[in-house]
Automatic annotation (TrEMBL):
It comes from the Eukaryota. Pfam families: Cadherin (PF00028), Cadherin_2 (PF08266), Cadherin_C_2 (PF16492). SUPFAM superfamilies: Cadherin-like. This is Protocadherin beta-3. PANTHER family: CADHERIN-87A, PROTOCADHERIN BETA-3. InterPro entries: Cadherin-like_dom, Cadherin-like_sf, Cadherin_C, Cadherin_CS, Cadherin_N, Protocadherin/Cadherin-CA.
Length: 796
């Protein structure tokens, strides 16, 4: 019989499964599954991948998960097979109590794209509980004068199963005087009533013992029994009667403890002990005894604990009124619990997407559901967030919400958001729950480095030491991490003739600029270059700034006298007529300075004169003028020594020697100085030496050319037969380095002579002498006044 029952149950489960699946597929997206209670953990409910029309790999890739209300997870989803399995053994009576059908609601949450699938699981009851009486033994007192057909209430049994498996009927044995009726309450529970069939006779049988059996409708059927002991009494012909057979009362669930919710009242027409009434609960359940208390004398029913509408919303309490003679009456009190808004809303967070890239638009940041245990308006909820946030709440199915960004975020403006989700019900007073979600914004490389200045001007004193730190550039990046790490570099100069790589260098990490060599103001007064700043993001962003370097002049050049020439040749004699007036312009000392600014401001001073007081020099223009009238007593020949000094720090100077001859008139022939004859003789001997030296050098040069031609012919002839005649090849280094440390070349000439011996060319390379720059500048200044002087510094 048990095997047949199990087969029937399995057939019913399979039938219900196909019915629910068929209705689910034919209707909306919601599906209903069924499973019998008490199935072991891991029991297969259904294959979700097949039901959803997805492949198992797609189900796992979309991050499918089962979401249930509350913290208890009854299900588990296998991503390897797509099967929906039981996570624990289900007890229908524990989950749903007397509610039928017993439905568990759950959702399938899919990502990418976001999708909700609502499902239901019907838990099928099995007959795993037997009917149980609250009292295993009942004691009744019945008057012997009780007429047949009298109905006597009995204590009922309870069966935790539902439907067909619940309690169905009662039987009694032996049944010579009584039979039992099975009655149903309004809530569906069944209770027995004992009906007297045959009058009792106390003298014949003062006591009776009956067995009351409660049977359910399961397969196999389960039963429970209670013993009924009946005492036959003498006549007490009036039983207590209640004023109302049914008391109905409504009580707020927040009613204080010890409050009287109802007072029952019964009367008895008898007198004495037969008319004294006491009240008591009649076969009340343990839950009723823990919740209510009945005063046996006054009939006041009080609360002994707080009510909870969400747990039990109504009570049906049987009350018995018994007189002193043992007769009793029964009434029922129905307590309806009224819901109050005493439960705040609940928020269950399903997933959080944080951090979120700043350039992503309309991204789902969080998925959550809300619920409220109250009913009516007390259980309806609303969700909201602050208005000043770039997010929006979007409702979904069955109280599910998604928190979505409205547009692209900017980490540089705000890198973190504290989002407070407020859930408020519509009850009175309104209750709310706040839940905080921290949304972090991750950085993307969307900001290029920015220099603190668009252009920089650096001042460098000439003759600096190599590797001197001359300044810095700085750039900042609003991004973070590697996106904000800046690397500096020198950009290729627009002027291709500027040797930037040999002038400056930059520290790639901090932007410090260094001069690689000593700078010469006279050679290079200023130069410009561009500096780039590049971050380490992907892709890398960069910017650039202009750097202008101004070389500051130092007083490193002495004045150079252009006129009169101080080259050791025959001195230039200035002729002055003796009739010259005071202030007569004798000559003008012309000098230049390779420096600039105040370092090139020249002043003139007469240091020494043959006859002091006769001539004077103007300090600012170098004009030599007579200081007084000339006389016959004044010497005819004068030698003046003029000091030319610049205004630098420290000052530098040069001297010029002037020869002045006083004549009576310009028609007088020029009389050379007596010391000029020995000098002329010395010049003639020097000319002889120069001619001899030139002849020697020319001979040596001719011999070198012949030797070189011979070597080349030898190399070509031996290359065809034996080999090659080896001589040193390539240019011989002939660099001359200025090590004076002043930053300017010395006034001595420098040459570079290279003899190349490669097969392509046979030539001598003569470089022009390198002369100081200030000579060239000075020559340019006086080129128009004295072109022969300019040509004297050129070599061919």
């Amino acid at each position: 019989m048990e095997a047949g029952g199990e087969r029937f149950l399995r057939q019913r489960q399979v039938l219900l499964l196909f019915v629910f699946l068929g209705g689910s597929l034919a209707g909306s997206a919601s599906r209903r599954y069924s499973v019998a209670e008490e199935k072991e953990k891991g029991f297969l409910i259904a294959n979700l991948a097949k039901d959803l029309g997805l492949r198992v790999e797609e189900l796992a890739a979309r991050g499918a998960q089962v979401v249930s209300k509350g913290n208890k997870q009854h299900f588990q989803l296998s991503h390897e097979t797509g099967d929906l399995l039981l996570n624990e053994k289900l007890d229908r009576e524990e989950i749903c109590g007397p509610t039928e059908p017993c439905i568990l609601h759950f959702q399938i949450l899919l990502q990418n794209p976001l999708q909700f699938v609502t499902n239901e699981l019907h838990i099928i009851d099995i007959n795993d509980h037997s009917p149980v009486f609250f009292e295993n033994e009942m004691h009744l007192k019945i008057l012997e004068s009780t007429l047949p057909g009298t109905v006597i209430p009995l204590g009922n049994a309870e069966d935790l199963d539902v439907g067909r498996n619940s309690l169905q009927n009662y039987t009694i044995f032996p049944n010579s005087h009584f039979h039992v009726l099975t009655r149903s309450r309004r809530d569906g529970r069944k209770y027995p009533e004992l009906v007297l069939d045959k009058a009792l006779d106390r003298e014949e049988q003062p006591e009776l013992s009956l067995t009351l059996t409660a049977l359910d409708g399961g397969a196999p059927r389960r039963s429970g029994t209670a013993q009924i002991n009946i005492q036959v009494l003498d006549i007490n012909d009036n039983a207590p009667e209640f004023a109302l057979p049914l008391y109905e009362v409504t009580v707020l669930e927040n009613t204080p403890v010890n409050s009287v919710i109802v007072t029952v009242s019964a009367s008895d027409l008898d007198t004495g002990s037969f008319g004294t009434i006491s009240y008591a609960f009649f076969h009340a359940s343990e839950e009723i005894r823990k919740t209510f208390q009945l005063n046996p004398i006054t009939g006041d029913m009080q609360l002994v604990k707080y009510l909870n509408f969400e747990a039990i919303n109504s009570y049906e309490v049987d009350i018995e009124a018994k007189d002193g003679g043992g007769l009793s009456g029964k009434s029922t009190v129905v307590v309806q619990v009224v819901d109050v808004n005493d439960n705040p809303p609940e928020l269950t967070l399903s997933s959080v997407n944080s951090p979120v890239p700043e350039n992503s638009a309309e991204t789902v940041l969080a998925v959550f559901s809300v619920s409220d245990l109250d009913s009516g308006d007390n259980g309806r909820v609303r969700c909201s967030i602050e208005n000043n946030l770039p997010f929006v709440l979007k409702p979904s199915i069955e109280n599910f919400y998604t928190l979505v960004s409205e547009g692209a975020l900017d980490r540089e403006t705000r890198s973190e958001y504290n989002v407070t989700i407020t859930v408020t019900d519509l009850g009175t007073p309104r209750l709310k729950t706040e839940y905080n979600i921290t949304v972090l914004v991750s950085d993307v490389n969307d900001n290029a480095p920015a220099f603190t200045q668009s252009s920089y001007t650096l001042l460098v004193q000439e003759n600096n030491s190599p590797a001197l730190h001359i300044g810095s550039v700085s750039a900042t990046d609003r991004d973070s991490g590697t996106n904000a790490q800046v690397t500096y570099s020198l950009l290729p100069p627009q002027d291709t003739h500027l040797p930037l790589a040999s002038l400056v260098s930059i520290n790639a990490d901090n932007g410090h600029l260094f001069a690689l060599r000593s700078l010469d103001y006279e050679a290079l007064q200023a130069f410009e270059f561009r500096v780039g700043a590049t971050d380490r993001g992907s892709p890398a962003l960069s910017s650039e700034a202009l750097v202008r370097v101004l070389v500051l002049d130092a007083n490193d050049n002495s004045p150079f006298v252009l006129y009169p020439l101080q080259n050791g040749s025959a001195p230039c004699t200035e002729l002055v007529p003796r009739a010259a007036e005071p202030g007569y312009l004798v000559t003008k000392v012309v000098a230049v300075d390779g420096d600039s600014g105040q370092n090139a401001w020249l002043s003139f001073q007469l240091l020494k004169a043959t006859e002091p007081g006769l001539f004077g020099v103007w300090a600012h223009n170098g004009e030599v003028r007579t200081a007084r009238l000339l006389s016959e007593r004044d010497a005819a020949k004068h030698r003046l020594l003029v000091l030319v000094k610049d205004n630098g720090e420290p000052p530098r100077s040069a001297t010029a020697t002037l020869h002045v001859l006083l004549v009576d008139g310009f028609s007088q022939p020029y009389l050379p100085f007596p010391e000029a004859a020995p000098a002329q003789a010395q010049a003639d001997s020097l000319t002889v030496y120069l001619v001899v030296a030139l002849a020697s050098v020319s001979s040596l040069f001719l011999f070198s050319v012949l030797l070189f031609v011979a070597v080349r012919l030898c190399r070509r002839s031996r290359a065809a037969s034996v080999g090659r005649c080896s001589v040193p090849e390539g240019p011989f280094p002939g660099h001359l380095v200025d090590v004076s440390g002043t930053g300017t070349l010395s006034q001595s000439y420098q040459y570079e002579v290279c003899l190349t011996g490669d097969s392509g060319t046979n030539e001598f390379k003569f470089l022009k002498p390198i002369i100081p720059n200030f000579l060239a500048q000075g020559a340019e200044r006086v080129s128009e006044a004295n072109p022969s002087f300019r040509n004297s510094f050129e070599f061919s």
